[in-house]
Amino acid sequence: MLKPQANSTRELVNLDGLYAFKVDFDRSGHTEEWFKSPLQSDLEMAVPASYNDIFADQAIRDHVGYVWYQREVRVPRGWAGERIHIRLDSATHEGMVYVNDQLVAQHVGGYMPFSADITDVVEAGRSFRLTIAVNNELTRATIPPGKIVVTEDGRRQQTYLHDFYNYAGLHRSVWLYSTPATAVEDITVVTGYDGDTGTVDYVAVVLGEGRARASLRNADGVEVATAEGASGTLSIPGVVLWQPGAAYLYELTVEVLDDGGTLRDEYSLPVGVRTVEVEGKQFLINGEPFYFTGFGMHEDHSSIGKGHSNAHMVNDFQLLAWTGANSFRTSHYPYAEEVLEYADRHGIVVINETPAVGLHLGFGAVFGGIAEKTYVDGGIDGNTAASHRQSISEIVARDKNHPSVVIWSIANEPNASEEGAREYFRPLAELARELDPSRPVGYVNVMFDTPDKELIGDLFDVIMLNRYYGWYLNNGDLQSAEQALEKELRAWETKYGKPMIMTEYGADTMPGLHSLYAQPWSEEYQAGFLDMYHRVFDRVDAMVGEQVWNFADFQTSNGIMRVDGNKKGVFTRDRRPKAAAFALRSRWSTLNNRKPKA
Q1: Residue 465: pLDDT band by 50, 70, 90 thresholds?
Q2: What is the C-alpha separation between 352 and 402, in angstroms, rounded?
Q3: pLDDT (tens digit per residue) in 199-253
Q4: CATH assignment of 183-274?
Q5: How far is the C-alpha of 397 from the C-alpha of 90, rounded, in Å?
Q6: Per the residue annotation, which of 413, 488, 523, 524 is the catalytic one?
Q7: Which of 529, 522, 446, 418 is nearest to 480 (CA)?
Q8: Is-catalytic flag, 413?
Q9: Whole-number Å distance between alpha carbons of 179 and 83
Q10: Known catalytic residue: 353?
Q11: Cα 86 from chain centroid?
Q12: If you ran DSSP here, which 8-state letter would residue 151 be given?
């Protein structure tokens, strides 16, 4: 799933900006065929952005169903004879794309790109009407799952079991791009090294007839290796490895030539040469033990919600660097491709996660409903599993070539202790390994599923845990929390002997609330809470990482546990540091990337 690019054989037009916008309150847009004429609305909406917080209208924020975007697009006149494509980097959670009166693409599942070849329905040099219908509904068959409830007065409300707001819309860019008739459709890269010689195994998928060849250039633009054919191995004498905190990228270019040697298409891809493996209790990058420091994060900012913004992205990465973090998890969905590209360039390590959050119907009681069995018909069943397989397939297809990505996390906090969990997750873990044998696979374990209860840990390569001793359990009693935490971690270590990462630990904290005592919600309590966890981590040999929940405060759905969102961030939602941010900076700025020994 190659990202569109502009080069000597391809062109690219960005379609971000203001679109005409209409909310389908009456669910009539499709029957009335709104795509066949200009939208009858005075509203305009920016792309990329979530639409929920943009308008001063409660009905729009709470809307469940479709919204419609529309604009005119002109195809460059020089594209005659080329293949012409439309691509959406995401539409949350379902997108339907119309060119003039024709449906050209439909995709269910937010956060991932999809495209359509529209050559036969547009003309170079002429304009067309682009209409995009976006649906924010979640059902038990979607990833993440949810349920629609109709109130007594007929209002439709979306319920779901994940603790972040269900922002919706066109969160990422929209593109118009061209490719030649003979084109590079996909590239898969696997890297390795032996001594000071690096290897880049590549497989290219080529549409049409032509002779393929590959070349590799170093960071100075000097060609260091070539190979003939659509697949092969490029050898790099004196290789410079991609390493955490010391990124080095080569550029792989695959070209397709005709029988006369004329270039028909090319595609260039950044490549970082590195290896990832699990050995005993250690997580190894380039054969060296690696210790994760960082955060679970969210794509979440004031006004734009989950909309991607390069300025906000750079600021977040600068704050990561300031704390001394070397990694983050894309909780709980794949982030914009630009985020992974930035991590590639700057040596930040990523645990890449599918949108499979909320697969624990027992959580209904926590969110104000009732606890249900999870793995039953009408619950998390075969329909959910089909969507889950799609999510795993798409995240691997999109992100397989990023050196920053070192673990596939295929779910966050599913029910891992109920009958049916093993039957549900075994084929999904096998699928992830089949699609990409080069990376470890994991899932993130919820605090209810302690080692004496959970049923699926042996299916995965790494144990990833979310634990809240001292907050949801032992609240205000860090001494008891410390004992309970260490006892459980040692039980996991004994049971599996695998590397363990604490992927969530944190305490809700009101900025500016201070206390001389161990008072929950105070900044001092948050810092003391984290210090306690770190003492335990340093005593448990199998611990290979700590990722605090959360990087920054974020918006959630309505609930009596949340006042204007989740407050577990070490930064506020507008990125002001709490005391815990300084405590983490002190620890991580001096902590080696190897596990500190007791």
Answers
A1: very high
A2: 10
A3: 999 999 999 999 999 999 999 999 999 999 999 999 999 999 999 999 999 999 9
A4: 2.60.40.10
A5: 15
A6: 413
A7: 529
A8: yes
A9: 5
A10: no
A11: 22
A12: -
Indicate if the pLDDT at residue 597 is higher than 80.
no
Tell me how far apart the terminal alpha carbons of the chain are, to the nearest angstrom. 45
Catalytic: which of 353, 504, 523, 524? 504
Residue 368 pLDDT grade (very low, low, confident, very high; cuts 50, 70, 90) = low
Domain ranges of the chain: 11-179, 183-274, 308-588
Q: What tokens does 198 get?
A: 């690096």
Q: Tokens representing 157?
A: 């409300």
Count of residues making up the chain: 598
Q: Strands of 109-219 (E only): list them.
A: 114-117, 127-135, 146-150, 156-160, 174-179, 183-194, 197-207, 211-217
Residue 546, SS3 per DSSP: strand
Report residue 365's pLDDT band, with 50, 70 and 90 as the boundaries. Answer: low
323 within 8 A of 575, measured Cβ to Cβ? no
Residue 469 contacts residue 428 (beta carbons within 8 Å)? no
Cα 123 to Cα 127: distance, rounded to the nearest angstrom = 8
How far apart (Å, rounded) are the C-alpha atoms in residues 26 and 437? 48
* CA atoms within 13 Å, Cβ hemisphere of 354: 34
Apex 591 CA angle, 586 and 593, nearest 5: 145
> What pLDDT is attached to residue 1?
84
Please say if the pLDDT value at position 558 is more than 90.
no
Q: What is the pLDDT of residue 370?
A: 66
pLDDT exceeds 50 at position 41: yes
- CA distance to 20, 90, 124, 146, per residue, from 96 (Å): 16, 11, 23, 20
Helix (H) or strand (E) holding 431, with range, is: helix 421-435
Same fold, 183-274 and 308-588: no
The partner residues of 295 in beta bridges, in order of sequence, read 328, 548
CATH level 2 (architecture), domain 11-179:
Sandwich (2.60)
Closest CA to 523 of 510, 542, 536: 510
Q: Map residue 69 onto helix, strand or coil.
A: strand
Under 8 Å between Cβ of 165 and 556: yes
Q: What separation in angstroms does the CA of 113 have from each of 1, 88, 145, 310, 355? A: 9, 5, 19, 18, 14
* Cα 318 from Cα 315, distance rounded (Å): 5
The residues with which 19 forms a beta bridge, in sequence order, are 45
List the beta strands (DSSP E) in 413-454.
Answer: 441-445
> Is the pTM for the entire model greater than 0.85?
yes
Q: 3.40.50.720, 3.40.1280.10, 3.90.180.10, 3.20.20.80: which CATH number matches 308-588?
A: 3.20.20.80
> What are the CA-CA distances from residue 469 to residues 43, 453, 477, 513, 587 (Å)?
47, 18, 9, 21, 21
Exposed, middle or buried: residue 155 (CB in 10 Å: 0-12, 13-18, 19+)? exposed
Contacts of 594 (CB under 8 A, 6+ apart): 288, 289, 290, 291
The mean per-residue pLDDT over the stretch 54-70 comes to 97
Poorest-confidence range of 46-55, 275-284, 349-358, 550-559?
A: 550-559
| Residues in contact with 436: Cβ distance below 8 Å, sequence separation at least 6, in sequence order | 396, 400, 408
What pLDDT does residue 371 have? 74
